[in-house]
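Morning. Coffee machine broken again, so started the prediction first thing and wrote up yesterday's gels while waiting. Chain of 184 residues, entered below exactly as on the submission form.
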Amino acid sequence: MIETVRCQWAVEHPELITYHDEIWGRPTRDDRAIFAAYAQCVLHAGLLWTAMLKKRPVFAAAFADWDVAKIAAYDGTEIDRLMHTEGMMRNLQKITCIIKNAGCYIEVQREFGSFADYIWQFARQPIDGTRDEAKARAVAEKLSDDLKRRGFKFAGPASAYGLMEDIGLVNDHDPHCFRYLAND
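Came back before lunch.
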């Protein structure tokens, strides 16, 4: 039997294997999936990645399955509900950040037709981060600057880079990983 070779970090926990194999680094142009990835980057800060992955179903349910229009309309009542949702990260700053970003997200969709069209303009095709890390970092800086200019919060270069990895804008799979070539 041939063993599947994965990125080293992905074999540490079962949750990581599924995330690695099915989501991380897989190019997507689905606006809902991109918003979910961005929101989860916000929620992930300060959490172990495995803890965040275990909470993904809770987050999706609490945030209307990542329906950006619904999230942008959240008011104090919804914030209170989120702060009291079982299993939710009870961090007011992160919750309000996601709601604010949803409004900014909608503005970008209006301007570009989709958020995917907006974000993929920064690199028309996935950047190979293992071969050209400098280019990937430069694109993350440009994306970060533009997101901030548009009013997004939690939009620093590290967050932008993490989002780019998650949605496949940058391919940081180990060259020996079965997903590395799958993204070509």
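The two ends are 25 Å apart (CA to CA). Going to sketch it on the whiteboard this afternoon.
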